[in-house]
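Researcher: Good morning. I'm working through a list of sequences from a screen, and I'd like to move beyond sequence-only analysis. For each chain I'm collecting a predicted structure so we can compare shapes side by side. This is the next one on the list. No need for commentary yet; just the structure.
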Amino acid sequence: MLMIPESFIQELLNRVDVVDVIDKSVPLKKAGSNYVACCPFHQEKSPSFTVSPTKQFYHCFGCGAHGSALSFLIEYQGMSFVDAVEDLAKSLGLAVPQETQKMTPQLKEKNLALGEALELASQYYQTALKKSERAIEYLKKRGLTGQIAKTFQLGFAPEGWQNLESVFKQYDDDVLTIAGLTLKNNQGKRYDRFRDRIMFPIHNMKGDIIGFGGRVIDPNDTPKYYNSPETPLFQKSQELYGLFAGRRAIREAGAVLVVEGYMDVVGLAQFGVRHAVATLGTAMSTFHIKKLMRQTDTIIFCFDGDHAGKAAAWRALMNALPSLNDKVVLKFLFLPDEHDPDSYIRVHSKEAFEVMMHDAMPLSQYLVQHLTEKNNLVTQEDKVKFLNEAEPILKEITAPKLSLLLRKRFAELAHLNEKEMDQLLHLPQPKSLSHKVMIKTKGKLPSSVKRKFILLLILKPELALSEDILLVSQDSFEDDLLKKVLEIALHQPDSKPSSILHGLKSQVDGALMDLIHEELSLFDDHIHFESEIEGARKSLTQQGKASATREHFNALKDKPLSSFTDEEKEHLKMLAQRPKTPPRD
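Model: Good morning. Structure tokens for this chain:
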């Protein structure tokens, strides 16, 4: 398995030009010291996508997409992490070092990585599919071609208990069990988890295989779908089948279609609908919603029209509400009872299916329909029931405009005015501006001096001093972040901001990284960094001294006067003459 040293990735990011990399795919225009374009990650009419040659990263003020040259190739071009590194290295004339080349064959076999085990299993399943007339015939009956099977790396797990023994010399290695490829019975005997099933590899956003889904060929076998278990690489509630393969199609279509099964994703792709994804045997989670919102502003849920489909749609809606913003559009498409997406498109054509997607029910309409489906709001009791069901929904919605409009609509249905509605349900007033919008205000630097100091050091790491570590004073997220930035800056003072941010990515919470990118994008490249950093450094030093003074004063004033030394008495007298509350910054 290819292991790329982190030091090499840092070198790449320090040497590559993010403007050149992005301009090859998205034509950029010069605008002051930066370059701009309409964002390739969401639909927009005026440019909000900026690329900074000095900071060496891109940022979209519309959808929040951001990253380095490396992440652009992964997110936009759909490359795997390894392919993206190799592409950048090739452009610079560098050879990618492989740490696995230093490992002995014995050590490599003993320390078999989970990812390598899954990749080898996938290769075996793909080869087995080519040899199985029964599996090929099944896929042909479902209307799939060899090309689409190759695109999605479909495979086949043959009948039998230990087929993978031919692939792995150490079949009893615990790595295979941890990876979800084998099971162990009560007698300790190992056997293959997947048997007599069409195999669907599940990829993460880097393109690595992290698990499998297996579908039966014989309709009498159960369960119909069987997924890999939770592993260190695979968490069902955080992954979506088809997202890696469909990212470019999602952006081109300006929407993503969420369906219920692997075969729906593959079957729709066969007909040219390539912007579909599926959950992995779990309900649509908040994590899923946020993941999709990074790809597009329009999410269309497609469910069967039966009771189970409607229940799944309602769960998806409730999980989505807390994550929504006013730019995201949720729609709901319910198919006729006798169809799933795969069968509908085969019977009625791609064009008919696209019409259904276009006419899918908006979230607001679906909410009203669901709440009034068995309630005609005739009696006062009907209205009370309606308000009781509407209350928790309205409290979940944080998108200001959507929240306000839904309150108005629900108030109309209950024959109330807005003030009565809010008072009756104790609803908080929708926020007019989110925190992210607030920090976009031009000309305003971050309010926290410590965070400003951190951002300045990311932009100019060569100005960091070893004594700056003394400014790390509290157990807070800002102090933790300052410590991490100083470690990188002092060790690699020539690093570009994109390189530093890459180094922080695996150590810092994702939401905080989003905030850092956004605040960095607001900095003027022409400010006098030396004076700005020195000013922030002095301010933090004074804050530290003031904090130490307060602590010393509190310790002395609680001490019995009889135990004071002459020096402590003089010190207390001096402290007492100072302002008790130091001036704020």
